[in-house]
Description:
alpha/beta, two-stranded antiparallel ribbon
Amino acid sequence: MPSSPSYMTREDLSAFLLKPVTARPSIAVIDVRDDDHVGGHIFSSTHVPSSTLDYKIPELVRNLSGKDIVIFHCALSQQRGPTAARRYARERARLLSSTTRGDVATGPGMSDVEAEDVGHSQKVEGTEQKIYILDGGFVKWQEKYGPDSRLTEAYAPDIWVDYC
């Protein structure tokens, strides 16, 4: 069973993002807000609505396999962000385990080529990866870093005036 994801502060994440790419770990920020994905987003984050996680998690695990750090967040990081981080960690552990055992998910009547394609699509690199949840979510992030265009894209301050 994978360990529970830890929390990362907005200060730590901003410090990572402000470092030159060559001087920092390889990171991915995953924003799982749904209809509330308005008013800005963390620079270079990937929007994956929580409503799509059922079918997006395996794809995320494969696409982010080379990242050192993966950070999940939603608006407050109280429900959707932590749930997504845990689901990602479990799926990553499952795929790593099946890859090291050599399992290939095949179906009845599949040709060897089809079976090979399925097995290849499920491969996940076994590199060490740290999974975090952004403490306070985007709400806390925007309070401090919303106006900073190096850290926040498409920021709309008027949306946040009376939020929460």
